[in-house]
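Final report, results section. Input specification for complex C-07:
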Amino acid sequence: MRRGRESPPARTRSSRAVREAALGYLLVLPALAVFGVFVFYPFAANFRLALYQTPPYPGLPSRYVGLHQVGQVLASSGFLQSLGSTLLFVVMVVPAGLLIGLLLAVAAHRRLRAMAVYRVIFSSTVVTSVAVSALVFGTLMDPVVGLLPWLGLNPSPPILQNTTWALPAIAVMSVWQFLGLSFIVMSAGLSAVPEEVLEAARVDGASERTVFWRVTVPLLSPTIFFGLVVATIYAFQTFGQVDILIGYSSAAFEHVNLLVYDILDTIEVAKTSGQAAVLSLALFCLTLGVTLLQLRLVERRVHYAA
Amino acid sequence: MRPDSSSSFGERGSGRRPEHPGRRPGRRPGRRRWRLAARYTLLTIGALVVLAPLYLTVVSSLLPPSALAERPPPLFPLDPQWHDYAVAWSQGDLGVYLRNSAIQTAIIVCGQLVTSVLAGYAFAFLRFPFKRALFVVFLATLMIPFEVTLVTNTQTISELGWYNTFAGLTVPFLATGVGTFLLRQAFLQIPRDLQEAATLDGYGRLRFLLRIALPLARPALAALGVFSFLAAWNQYLWPLVVTGSGNGVRTVQIGLKLLQGTEVSRTDVALAGTVIAVLPLLVLLVVFQKQLVRSLTAGAVK
Amino acid sequence: MADVAFRGATRRFGGRPAVERLDLEVADGELLVLLGPSGCGKTTALRMVAGLEEPDEGEILIGGRVVNDVEPKDRDVAMVFQSYALYPHLNVEHNIEFPLRRRGVDAQRRRQTVREVAASLGLQELLARKPRELSGGQRQRVALARAIVRQPRAFLMDEPLSNLDAALRLQTRADIVALQTRLGTTTLYVTHDQVEAMTMGHRIAVLDHGVLQQVGPPHALYDRPANLFVAKFLGSPGMNALPATLEGTTAHAARVARVARVDGGHVPLGDDGAAAAGQAASLVVGVRPEHLALSPSGTLEAKVLLVELLGADVHVLCQLGDQTKLVVRQDASAPRPAIGDGVRIVVASGSVHVFTGGSGARLGGPG
Ligand SMILES: Nc1ncnc2c1ncn2[C@@H]1O[C@H](COP(=O)(O)OP(=O)(O)O)[C@@H](O)[C@H]1O
Ligand SMILES: [Mg+2]
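Structure output:
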């Protein structure tokens, strides 16, 4: 059935396709190169580094120790201390950050007078960097120029040196800093709740409270799960506040040694890249775990709804 | 104060009354007013709490040193002292840091826009083998927090001799999975007919991109731009690692740490620096709120 | 301006041909309508001319030159898309101007040309508007304007009227014909609407499942359809098709009798029909509704299923025997039967087409 003539057009088609594919790879290449060098390669390198022990003196070759080092680091009191602080920190920051954000979003989710101003104010902390919030709160909590003594809250030793209060203090400023993002995400979720559904519930005679708990919140659950992941990852990655306000000089350091700080500390001070790689992988697993958990939960909810 | 008609409060007004025979119409206006008052009270308290830290910072930065320790703290700088700002600017090298931050942010924003546009275009419009797999690779970057790659990245930067350079500061961030995803989605919204019409009108791929695709993807570009700006300007961990020794490319966020660390006695100066560092972003927030919200919630609404 | 030709053009999607070995020529200045049901490959054929789709086999010629290897932008053809494909971010003026910018026309001339073309289509008031601020008919005219502003060698139009309401479609149909006549530009016009095809085309090419069925002037296709598909597709309603057997036991007897037996009676075949039918194993006879009438002296016995009044005409749907249905068209002034009535139908002499039962190819008939 094939005609003798077909080959020239077939060739041009394939050469066009080859050119298109070449262009495709060319356009993807810049991003891919950056990802390769600064994301995938260093990520993968962790798995190798984790198996080698870095000698205490620079210049000496590192030694293959296999999984021994992984177990050693994960069982070390330093890591457990750091992991404990981090998890405690997550517990302090995540629910508070999300709940306050949700509360403010619900309060501001009416087309009332001046609402735009409130929205800008509630979103505002999203633009404050960790350094800014650390300085702002560092000043407020300063034992001399800060407001705490005046408010009658003057723990001794000073709050940021205080083994009991340093972590909660960092948590409070983190909640404040996270509030903007939390408010924005919750507001977007609320706007995505279809107004007709709420109206149908009201027409059915439901009170505002019933509408909120029985209709709005269930419909908002994907947003809340998303917020949970964002907040948890935010908390896991907290570093700047600790670096600026605590540091090793603080007496409370051991209790505020969050995971990322520990990683950087291991890289820069201890200079044991093998141990740092193990810590990095631990952080990765925590993050991955939270994300997968969210996917599972959202999936299950979708099943219920169907 | 009457709520706008579109609010759900408004819609329960007199027009709907016949549908709610069980309610007592006489009491409702009063109850509604009470609720409204409660709502505004909550909003106002929330606003005060959220704003207080920044507001007190601004006020304190303008107080004369002697007034800093006054209790209760002055709520308004009656005699604003701009002196601290000058000190922060000159002695704290804040001017240099701001310039560095501006350069670093500009490079990252432009770089991310360019790489995202190029890759997004390829993923949306071109056919090539392993396209899907590559796209999954791009999305996979979202699962790897930057902190996890720190160990090797510091070594890479050191081997490249990129410590204390803008290259070291910016190159790791010149591509973004989220940005590529955003632009791909925006490009996919463009009907194929438009692309073909442009082809027949004599516009090649590049001209189609510039004259049709980019203008139509402007909302996504703006969202990505604002988001990159925010993220780049506020970066802390990586600039701290890369600009450890020297003012050459140190950014304002690290500058703030130094203001805090080295001049403990000069709290007012540190606060002035804080205000200077956050100001560009407050402007960004007010002007580009819509784009900012869009980019921050891109992942939340599927 | 130039002629356009397909030579054995084939395009497959996933192994299935969307257009199969299409041989077709559109003469210089001609308006040729490519007609067929949805999914028959009309758009694919059009896109091959535009260069948006490459033929797997065969050639596309424009102005006598094979253009298979010519990029779409260098083919110098303009396409009006079904969706109009207006650029949403450009106003009407810039939409129309868009193709000119790539053709090295200076700004002064461009403005001038755009204004002329816009005026010729009644768009001069709308130049500053964006597409979303236009009605469907206005958008359609902007799409036309963008095509003609380039003065291309050929127009390709893909169902340009399908998104308009009925009244506007009628008006625009006439406008496009007038425009094409004035410009004299070779036009390949795709539609699934046979009325559009009959009223607009200099010639019509009917496509079914990617295969060309027949090409010719509208009246030729209507009067002498090459096969059952064309016969049924043209006309509203299309030709009635009645499975038939020959009267008599031998071919010779049938030729003498010139009659075919169908459900409910028999129909006269006429000379040509009888001659052609003589050789066939199985037959289908075709009669247009307007060549049938209800009459007590009719040779077909039927039952009325449905009576539709369409203003000037009435369509009477009848059941013949168990299997066959046909439509009789009569004047609205004629007496109308009631549903369920038993009627007799008379077939006008010399109006019966004969097709083979298998492939549906035409064997003979009037004309
Ligand atoms: N890009 C494509 N990929 C796969 N199949 C296609 C493509 N374009 C068209 N087809 C198929 O080819 C056939 C003809 O399509 P088309 O030319 O659009 O028909 P028409 O325009 O006559 O409605 C259809 O069966 C359609 O599904
Ligand atoms: Mg079509």
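Residues C 13, 18, 36, 38-44 surround adenosine-5'-diphosphate (ligand 1) (CB under 6 Å). The longest strand of chain A covers residues 52-53. This concludes the modelling results for the funded period.
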